[in-house]
Design a protein that fits this description.
The chain is of the alpha+beta class. 22% of the residues lie in helices and 13% in strands. The chain is built from 2 helices and 5 strands. The termini are close together.
């Protein structure tokens, strides 16, 4: 990452209104809409993953009905506000972060695990 003049750490403020940040509202496969994050975020992920990609922030008012067959406990009318199972990468938990860090180290051996 450093060799490509990108920081080894990326901070994304997800609690800010994506429209107010000037991010482009776009529609992706399956009709899901969201805001394409800024070039700084997208270039960082593209470089780290060694594939052209972009990060998508869901619309703030996005909701979808939950699927009863997949729920452990659900009340009628429950809704979800996430992209879970609708996007190819979810950087949301420690296991995902560990796997992503390992992939980054394989592609950028000049760095250390602490860099990711």
């Amino acid at each position: 990452m450093a060799a490509k003049s990108l920081p080894c750490e990326l901070v994304i403020e997800l609690d800010r209104d994506p429209a107010a940040q000037g991010w482009e509202l776009t529609e992706v496969k399956g009709g899901t809409k969201g805001y394409k994050m800024g070039a700084d975020v997208n270039s960082w992920f593209s470089c780290a993953l060694d594939v052209d990609c972009f990060a998508l922030h869901s619309e703030l008012d996005r909701v979808k009905p939950n699927k009863p067959a997949k729920a452990i406990c659900m009340k009628e009318g429950d809704q979800s506000k996430t992209f879970v199972s609708q996007a190819p990468i979810h950087v949301i938990n420690e296991a995902s972060l560990r796997a992503l860090s390992e992939r980054c180290l394989q592609r950028h051996p000049e760095n250390t695990a602490a860099d990711f």
